[in-house]
Amino acid sequence: MIADVRGKGMGAVRTVNGLLGSFHEAATRVPDLPGVVGRLEERMQELNAESAEGAESFATAIVIEIAADGSILHLSNLGHCAPLLVHQGRARPLDPADPTLPLGLGDLGRIRVPVERHPLPSDATLVLFTDGVLEARDRHGVFYDPVPHLSRPLPSDPAAILDTLLADLARHTGGRLDDDAALLAVTHRRDACDGAAAQSANRTSEGG
């Protein structure tokens, strides 16, 4: 899971901790992806009801499930930036066919939890990030687009891909971000012995 909570300060920290705890519990006990998202929605609603300030919050999120052999990706996008699938010199956004509301706003009209299925080829890397990446601007006010910079031959290594992306983002912004950014990458590794394995990496970058 990757998520971005609205707001800052202790209220946002409390929400993050609550969602992470709920996710870790649901991921080991709930049998399917819609059920996990349902638990997260319930927890977000509880956190809003418990808020001392009475202010409602929400969180965009992507929750993913990878098949045991690593070849299939199931993805639920809850108002979050589309992840990128990087493979064979091409970066492709996995835009949701059925956009839905963020966590905490499900009671406003989310009828069902959307789950999309995508193939995850061997040596392909899924790159997820928060909107601090897409909202980064250069000195002319041009927003950053990670797709062209990841659409070239790159090692099939999640840490190397994230380091490449962050270095290019720093060049684009002159080393200054207006918002915090979190990034996560997962690479499908096919192993001759046990069928498949996944390798992951994550990075955070603080705004100026």
What does this structure look like?
- The protein is of the alpha+beta class.
- It has five helices and nine strands.
- It has a single domain, classed as 4-Layer Sandwich (Phosphatase 2c, domain 1).
- The strands form two sheets. Strands 5-4-7-8-9 form a five-stranded antiparallel β-sheet.
- Strand 2 and strand 3 form a beta hairpin.
- Helix 1 packs antiparallel against helix 2.
- The longest helix is centred in the first third of the chain and has 21 residues.
- The radius of gyration is 17 Å and the shape is globular.
- The two termini are about 25 Å apart.
Outline the secondary-structure elements.
Layout: E1 2-5, H1 9-29, H2 33-50, E2 59-66, E3 72-78, E4 84-87, E5 90-93, E6 116-119, E7 125-129, H3 131-134, H4 146-150, H5 158-173, E8 181-189, E9 197-205
List key phrases describing it:
single chain, 208 residues, alpha+beta, Phosphatase 2c, domain 1, 5-stranded antiparallel sheet, 4-stranded antiparallel sheet, 9 strands, 31% helix, 26% strand, globular
